[in-house]
Automatic annotation (TrEMBL):
Biased composition (Basic and acidic residues): 69-96
Segment forming the signal sequence: 1-21
The species this protein was found in: Bacteroides intestinalis
Record's keyword terms, sorted: Signal
Record keyword Signal present: yes
Protein name listed in UniProt: DUF4890 domain-containing protein
Pfam families assigned: LTXXQ
Stretches the record annotates as Disordered: 57-111
């Protein structure tokens, strides 16, 4: 009887651990946390931070009416528009730092 209870407890513990691990979505922080980290890393003031967040939210992919993700061309167009807006918001130094941060994010996605 004690072995059955112990076995059941172990199974429940393992099941709950698996459920908690799945909630993390592959270890990727959510978009708002990544944006906040970028604001901190770039050293933006309040006005810049507000405008930066707005541009980054606009760039976030939206699903169309049928539930499909936008095409690569649409995303590239959004990215180019966002880059133009960010260039106006950020100082030259901040923009260079932002550009240097981008390849690092892309390399992680590919792996």
């Amino acid at each position: 009887m004690k072995k059955q209870i112990l076995g059941l407890a172990v199974v429940l513990f393992m099941g709950s651990a698996v459920c908690m691990a799945q909630d993390n979505r592959g270890g990727r922080p959510d978009m708002s946390k990544r944006i906040e980290q970028m604001v901190t890393d770039l050293g933006l003031n309040e006005t810049q931070a507000k405008e930066f967040k707005a541009v980054m939210e606009e760039m976030r992919p939206n699903r169309n009416a049928s539930g499909e993700r936008p095409s690569r061309e649409e995303m590239e167009k959004k990215r180019n528009e966002a880059d133009a807006k960010l260039k106006k918001i950020l100082t030259d130094e901040q923009y260079k730092k932002y550009q240097s941060m981008r390849p690092q994010r892309g390399q992680r996605r590919g792996k």
